[in-house]
Amino acid sequence: MSTDCTAQQLELQGFGRRKLVARFDGGRISSDGGLPLLAAVERQRRLMTRFASCFEDFRDERLVEHPVERLVAQRVLGLALGYEDLIDHDELRTDPLLATVAGQDDALGQKRRQARDRGKPLAGKSTLHRLEWGALGKDDTNPYRRITVDPEAVDEFFVEVFLDAFDTPPEQITLDLDATDDPLHGTQEGRFFHGYYGHYCYLPLYIFCGDHLLCARLRSSNRDASAGSVEELERIVGRIREAWPEVDIWVRADSGFAREPLMRWCEDHGVEYIVGLARNARLERALEPAFERAEDLCAESGQPERVYDEWWYKTRNSWSRERRVIGKAEITHRGPNPRFIVTSLDAAALDAATVYERIYCARGEMENRIKEQLSLFADRTSAHWLKVNQLRLWFSSVAYLLVSELRRLGLAGTQMARAQCGTIRLKLLKIGARIQVSVRRVTVSLASSHPYQHLFLHAARSLIRAGPQPA
Fold this sequence. Notes:
The protein is of the alpha+beta class. Helix content is 37%, strand content 21%.
């Protein structure tokens, strides 16, 4: 393939009698034509507006061209659209469609104070950088630290968004807890080597209820996976019960959370738990009769088989009481596969197989939610300070809420009702569009050949019917 590449034109080998020539001279064309869908979600749920209220701006009002609410919207929308770095915004700041959805009336940037900024309606990377550094707190001597964020207000924001998603209180909810690794490649504050993951990382704690994110807490990795989980549950459960006094709350987690403080807290506060339990010699001995039955079944069927058993169990030192333990004696083509869980659920109401297969195994869906966080760049924690990286994680979390609400409110009942956030971005947000700006409107002419027009229209109409959420 021969090419003739200049800054203005790219000429490729011809197809048939025609040459193929590419130039960046299309004018106001956006690759993010799906932004109106995110604008409809914001109108309905006010996610970015509410998140922006967690910030306080100490800048001189006379010199401010980009208010905090617009900066927050620009950063969150950028992440939702797949732009992970602040440097991307030095080009994105010229996009009139992004500017409009972020709340900029001057969509073409014609009224900017400085001549060099005209034609750039949004903030560049330096101004957005100030937004992130505000996580370190106010410093009158440092111009980068005039915008601050209230962590307690952010925690409350995530829980309030969850509560507002329900028209009527549910009878029962399950809170899923999990920790994951966030690999580090620099000398960030709080950087430690983690033996299980085999590299330097952070160890963020996530709490979900279905698709709803209630907590994203960035932590250094020199701690147990369950560290801080009791405090987070106390805060979240307390707020949920304040709003829904009758709701039945269950907690579900893997074996990293099978700790006395967490289980005892749940027992003392009327919260049911279903938690994985790491195997040990005592547990495996107790499961031997079940394995003998599984072997007999395998001999008869010639297929993998599983048998469940349960008993009351107490560790020698770490547990304060006996608890119900369920063991799974499974024989696969690869050999024995013992698994254990500990639960407070009543054996008379729910048998061992139901608790393990229908309740505990359903926590695998949380793994998909964490993967979605990564697709929205929750692992871009390259700043030196832990607090700044925590704020970056929160930006990614709000971007997740925005796309997740598009899925929940706009795509229910469609083939993409369970699609990953990355798939929604690819199929419904990354659409070529021509942008025309007039005095009264911004017109978005979407690509006529877009293959998911019916889904786009369905989502847009669903969101319009839902109407705005009361302030």
